[in-house]
Amino acid sequence: MDGICGIHCVRRERMHTLTHQLIDFVIRHALKNYEQAREVYQNACNPSRNLDYPQAVWEAWISFEEYHGTASQLNHAKARVKKMGEALAKKIAQVRGYNQTTPLIN
Q1: Residue 83 in contact with residue 54, Cβ under 8 Å?
Q2: Is the pLDDT of residue 4 over 50?
Q3: pTM for this prediction
């Protein structure tokens, strides 16, 4: 069991590092061009990316739009993040064997 956990923990750490590298890339390079930065965030937030810790990217995108976006762009980012968060919660519930009628918390 330790071997499996160890492999999973290393993989999770690598994915977490990749998430931070993406955010770092956006901060260092793409912020010179806000539209390019926005595209990087939108592409990273694509559900097919299967990021191990997408919440970090979501938070970074919202922060980016708070500082550099319009109200419309911020609202768009928040709406996408909310939708993705709901989809992630549903996926987690399915993996754990819950259905929509089973409460996650007793």
Answers
A1: no
A2: no
A3: 0.66
